[in-house]
Amino acid sequence: MTGAVLAAARVSVTGGRLTWASAPPVVLRRTGPRQVHVVAVGGGPLGGDRLGLEIDLGPGERLTVHSAAATLVQPGRDPAAEASFDVVARLAPGADLLWAPEPTVVCDGAVWAPSVRLEVAEGATAQVVEQVVLGRAGQAGGRCSSSVDVTFGGRSLLATTTVLAGGDPALAGIGGTGGARSVGTVVRVGAGPHGEDGGIDDDVLWARSPLDGPGSVLSVVGTVRGVARVLAADGAGVMSSVG
């Protein structure tokens, strides 16, 4: 853990006013009336880093959060040390949140453990769009254990963890990603498509499952560009520039 970075940022919208606080390496920049971008400075994250973001939206408020560039996760001094980025969002009734960062690339030897926790009041809506890429071009990719936990109206709606590892024969095999380099998800809460559908193309396959409540989960597996294409077609508006 020597040299590990601990950093957290906070953003809130209440009474029509957007306020935020952040410090390197997680820096927030306001890019619109109801929009902020997360700007990573100083490189990384590296193994051992613990990063976080808290979001609070008041009644009827809305916010879109993007990242300025792809996140590149690399191993730290301790090969076993994981890096993490924990997002916690609390939405009051009538609030609306879109969390849609650029793709995250998990390099060879890196261990990545991000999480998203949504506390959504009844009448509020949220959408989480994420894309993970296993390794840079020519790499197998490191290990990623990504968790999403959602409550709606105080009731648990979704609790899931997806584990990926490009160098693991089981997780990268036919029972896992099937050798695909990228995985994407869209979690919708409170609104949006709630039915079940799916499809397959030359470089990507996807499936949407309804939740036991107001929401759905879209899962996408395939090439980097194929996954980005499906996410964009789904209305997420996230296009990958990762090779």
UniProtKB/TrEMBL annotation:
GO molecular function annotation: nickel cation binding
Similarity annotation: Belongs to the UreD family.
Keyword Cytoplasm: yes
GO cellular component, one term: cytoplasm
Location within or outside the cell: Cytoplasm
Subunit structure comment from the entry: UreD, UreF and UreG form a complex that acts as a GTP-hydrolysis-dependent molecular chaperone, activating the urease apoprotein by helping to assemble the nickel containing metallocenter of UreC. The UreE protein probably delivers the nickel.
Function: Required for maturation of urease via the functional incorporation of the urease nickel metallocenter.
Superkingdom in the source lineage: Bacteria
Annotated keywords: Chaperone, Cytoplasm, Nickel insertion
Name of the protein described by the UniProt record: Urease accessory protein UreD
HAMAP family assigned to the protein according to its UniProt record, in alphabetical order: UreD
Annotated InterPro entries: UreD
